[in-house]
Structure formats: C-alpha cells, structure tokens
Request: fold
Amino acid sequence: MHQMQYDIESIYKAYYKDVYRYVQFISFDKQATEDVVQNTFLKAMQGIAGFREQSSLKTWLLTIARNESIRYAQKQKKYTEPISEELVSSINIENIACNHESTAQVISFIKNCTEPKRSLMILRLIDEMSFVEIGTVLEKSDTWCRVTFLRAKNELLKQLEGE
Reply:
C-alpha cells in the first residue's frame, strides 16, 4: 500500500472549523480552545507521515484534538467560560430541541456530561458523525457509542419533558 502525500495547509483549511468547534464545546474556554487547536495541528503536522488511513483525516484530527483537550485540562484543572451564542447557533439538534429554551437545556445537559459521554454527544449531535467514526475518536466500539448515545438521549428527553 503506498503512502499518500498530504499538504498540511490544505488539511488545516479543510478541517480547522470542525476541530475548533469540537474543542470549543469540550473546553468552554476561548484561550484553551485556541491553544488546543494549535497543538492539535502541530501534532498532526509532526505525525502526518504515520497516518495509516484506517480512518478519515477528520476522525484522526478529532482524536488528536480530544487527547490534546484532555492533556490541556489536566494541566489547567479547569473549564471556565460559558458556551457562546455563536456556538449555540451552530448546533444541529432540531430533532431534540424545538426552540431556543430547549437548545439551552440541551447544551446544559451536554456540558454536565462527563467524558467520554460529553464527546459522544458533541460528535453525534453537532458534528453528525457516524457511530463507527465516533468509536474511533473515543477508542470505544460503535456498539458502546450507540447504546450510550441512546441512553443519554432518553435521559435528555425525560429532562426536556419534565420542564
């Protein structure tokens, strides 16, 4: 199997927004997001020769971003700023939340989830990734992702109905 040549600049242009949005949702902090995204693309640039094409480039980058987010959080021991309105508007969860109030409840639910459930919810609801892709990012099986997502979604729907 021959190794493809990758242009890091075109990878950056193609996937920057996806990586930024994912990291922003995990960290809730603008400075942390910028640091983690910068570290993610630096690691990708350093490791691109080792990319084995067992997943998509986006999945590979989000895996790096997740690991960098965890490393950063462990160093900082904090998640600070609330989610921005810009981020709220990027969420594609019409099938769960019907109005702005419900959207805020969904965001609050996701924010209160612990890892890896938080990442699962973000990758499924916001990035609309498949369970196989999410499993690759989270290093879990696609079955685990499906079952955990279904349970979390049911928990969320119960909360929305109760309020």
Summary: The chain has two domains: 1-81, 82-163. Helices lie at 8-27, 30-47, 57-76, 85-89, 100-112, 117-126, 131-138, 142-162.
